[in-house]
From TrEMBL:
<dbReference type="InterPro" id="IPR055803">
    <property type="entry name" value="DUF7379"/>
</dbReference>
<dbReference type="Pfam" id="PF24062">
    <property type="entry name" value="DUF7362"/>
</dbReference>
<feature type="region of interest" description="Disordered">
    <location>
        <begin position="537"/>
        <end position="588"/>
    </location>
</feature>
<feature type="compositionally biased region" description="Gly residues">
    <location>
        <begin position="1"/>
        <end position="10"/>
    </location>
</feature>
<feature type="region of interest" description="Disordered">
    <location>
        <begin position="133"/>
        <end position="153"/>
    </location>
</feature>
<dbReference type="GO" id="GO:0006508">
    <property type="term" value="P:proteolysis"/>
</dbReference>
<dbReference type="GO" id="GO:0004197">
    <property type="term" value="F:cysteine-type endopeptidase activity"/>
</dbReference>
<feature type="region of interest" description="Disordered">
    <location>
        <begin position="1"/>
        <end position="37"/>
    </location>
</feature>
<dbReference type="InterPro" id="IPR029030">
    <property type="entry name" value="Caspase-like_dom_sf"/>
</dbReference>
<dbReference type="InterPro" id="IPR050452">
    <property type="entry name" value="Metacaspase"/>
</dbReference>
<dbReference type="InterPro" id="IPR029058">
    <property type="entry name" value="AB_hydrolase_fold"/>
</dbReference>
<protein>
    <submittedName>
        <fullName>Caspase domain-containing protein</fullName>
    </submittedName>
</protein>
<dbReference type="GO" id="GO:0005737">
    <property type="term" value="C:cytoplasm"/>
</dbReference>
<feature type="domain" description="Peptidase C14 caspase">
    <location>
        <begin position="593"/>
        <end position="869"/>
    </location>
</feature>
<dbReference type="Pfam" id="PF00656">
    <property type="entry name" value="Peptidase_C14"/>
</dbReference>
<feature type="domain" description="DUF7379">
    <location>
        <begin position="227"/>
        <end position="420"/>
    </location>
</feature>
<dbReference type="Pfam" id="PF24096">
    <property type="entry name" value="DUF7379"/>
</dbReference>
Amino acid sequence: MPSASFGGGAVRVRTPGSYEATPASDRGDRDLGDGTGHAAAKSALLAALGESDFEVVDRIDLTPRRSRDLESPGPANRRGTVSLDVDVAPTDDAVVLLERDGVYSWHLPLRPTGGTRSLDARTLTFEIDVQPRRPTSSSARATRRARALSAEQPHDRGLLGDLVHGAVQAIVLRFAAPLVVGGVVRKLEESVRPGLVHVAGPAAASWRPLNAGDTLSLPTDRPVRLLLLVHGTFSSTVGAFAAMGLVPGAGGFLPSVLSAYDAVVGYDHRTLSVDPKQNAGDLLAELRRQHPGTNLTIDVITHSRGGLVTRSFVEALLPQSNWPATVDNIVFVAATNGGTHLADPARWHDLVDLYTNLVTVGATGLAMLPGGGPVAAVVGGVVRGIGALVKYLVSYVADGDDVPGLAAMIPGGPFVTDLNGDQPGQPGPGANWHVVSSNFHVSLLDGSHRPPEFPKELAVRLGEGFVDGLFKGDNDLVVDTASMSAIGPPSGGYVKDSLALGTNDEVYHTNYFSQLRVIDAMAGWLPLGTGAGVSAEAAPEATREATTKATTKATTKATTKATTTTTTGRVRRSSRTTRQPSVTERGRAMTSRALCVGINEFKTLPQSSWLNGCVNDAEDIAATLKKNGFQARNVTLLRDADATKEAIMNALTSMIRKSKPGDEVLFSYSSHGTQVPDLPGTEAPGDKEPDGLDEAFACYEIAVGTDGWDRDTVILDDELRELFASAPEGVLVEVLLDTCHSGSGTRDLDDIQRDLLRGRRPRYLPPPTAKALAQARTIRANHPEAVERKALLSLVKSRGTKAKPVLFAACRADQTASDAQFGGRPNGAFTYLFLKALSENPNGTRTDLHKAVTNGLKAEDFEQRSTLEGPVKAKKTGFGQLW
């Protein structure tokens, strides 16, 4: 085997004939686009490793050999083994960090030291299995994914797997590993400085640790409110929460937080060498030093393992102490309330690999922000923790008992089991506890992937099932999704509200606080509009409005534009120089709630019947509503498998039951439409379907019944009408339907084929059997188009109350709603053009919006024409406004 020496002779590399080893080139960000963000992330990672006492011995490029004959295909695609021998001093050890196209994986020596020491210098050997090219056949990919998901197969070693394909860089790292008797991990974590961190301003550069004797100078002559930030494993206050001040569109969040609380503090702590209860004890001591506790109320935002620290503080220690402070609101973000499977000692290698890659991905995003983010501070804090565990895995006997901070998070282990049992004096169900959760999966597309900040190689590896093989269930790459809300006994009741982000390709474990949706939710849950020491319930409306204006520091200039700043920092502009009308004067609803449903994939339908733009419709509508005054906690988003009939009807019923006069309920639905035969006796007098068919909307589980589609798997227009009619008088019910609502929308096959060739698909399901289809055609042939309109109007009729729903529908009864693309992105034609019109004319009337959508459909050459149904006064009023 060819061999070469590096690092002044301290590293010797032997390669198979298909590979060669050379000193690393200056360009370390191979094949990563423009490389700007990734290069900065890699630089920050190496700098942080240096600060954590890792010495870079050398960086070595391992690359497949190329034939000197340009026309030759080169060496055969055979696997081989690269061996690295690294010389270390008696009290040193070494580890290799592999990097391939922006993906990192730690490799341990063949025989880790394991706590033994020698008086002589040693040579550590590392072996890396390599292959010039990755097999590209679909069968090979399927085999890799099946292996990743199989509980019987051994799991691949690290994110790059047991077999590394293509070019890879080996970063050889050396570190001191003295003989330590007892407290090994605590020794390795000694660089972590526990204590409170004063969040003095929005910029992380202003956040300072409180040294011994430093105080927050909290008042003692009036009620005091404190916000506490508690980070998770490997992290720090800056590493976990600095992104909150960098989210585009939410620049006002941290200023509002700082104005609403007497003080905002983080709690930096060791996460490996001590368990969460000991962390909580240290936290209690720190807080007691700052305030006697009388009239002190604490709100908490906590992430990951920090949830266990927070709950230990609130449930186990605070009730038993004589410190009279109280904890009110807690926001658990991706908390390990039920543990995480990565806490198992057998998964620690995967844990450090995942965190190393997630911190570099986060650093890449920070580096790309305007002006740059605190890359070094964020990466440094996390790498210190990762480095401590890597050193432990290499140099000492890996035993879960020696790492109590991780052992506490083992699902079903003693710590989480005890914590979720009854604690003397703990808060009971009904506390102001909130949960944010996500089920993350990458999306692999033709020529691209999501999320875009992930290196392609990382997206591919995750797409092959690397993480799914670890968890066997929903997760955000680090924590099981079900664990995030597993608070207390199974009877539940401890979670007051939640932001369940569902299955998505955007929100993973380390980027929650970079999400506008999460910031919006926290702004709604925390008393940011009341000022310190005042409860949201006790503050009068006028006081809340005045305080909100003060905390957001909005400024109005007597120029050509007036501005109003919201809690999250968004600015709404008007071209008028006069005072903007108040919420009441504009007719805007008191409390606005929304349910946005989008279904692309259906459980029992073939993929040829699936749609493309419905989920985007629902997400786009939800995002627009939040930008226009809806609180995140009041916007429910149901997509694909989450959008069952039961889930949809329960959510819609709950919203209507909660509503009071002056409130708004908005329901948007993007899916297939269809029809089912009307059942005799199901209509109230005067409401019989004139065509003998019930309009219906497909849910995720739509299935064939005895006489057509199973009525229990679709939502009927009768069911919606009855539900809308139950809304109290004075409640605004606004409905957006981007689906076909009538079987007469079935057109000639030639027309449908023409649309398919243009990337457009009708959102309509015909009856599923020949008998049902013939019946529908016979019934429809006996009714003129005037009757079709009556079927549509039935959705906005209300009996017995004065509630008058307003309906925007994607098309007329004799047309189909189009599932189309705009700029290469799938959307419903109606939804895309409706939101475009709303953005361009936010103060227009509903009629104005309807006309703009109609003109847009004509301009884009769509045959469908949207409809607007409701009271005349409603049509002359702005969208979302009462009349």
